[in-house]
Amino acid sequence: MKLDAATFRQLRRLAPVLDDILNAGEVEYADQAVNLTALATLCSQLFDAYRHLHPNDTEQARLDALESR
Question: How confident is the model at residue 5 (pLDDT cuts 50, 70, 90)?
Fold first, then answer.
């Protein structure tokens, strides 16, 4: 699934937030928490769009993930 330009820019802008949190091992600042919420929302929207295009593949991946736990 190809990302549109606006989504790509949002993801590119938010990716460093996750990197900062992972490096610190914690959410240190309120703006990180807010940006983390924005990243989660964007990821959820991307997942929904992908699932709409590939419902069978998505369901199989979910089942595979459950089996591997």
Answer: very high
Residue 14 to residues 26, 45, 51, 52, 60, Cα–Cα distance (Å)? 16, 14, 22, 24, 29
Domain with 44, as residue range(s), is: 5-67
Question: Chain-centre distance of CA 13, in angstroms?
Answer: 13
Indicate the number of domains in the chain: 1
The set of residues, in sequence order, having a beta carbon less than 8 Å from that of 1 and lying 6+ positions away, is: 46, 49, 50, 53, 54
pLDDT of residue 69: 85
**pLDDT tens by residue, 40-69:** 999 999 999 999 999 999 999 999 999 998
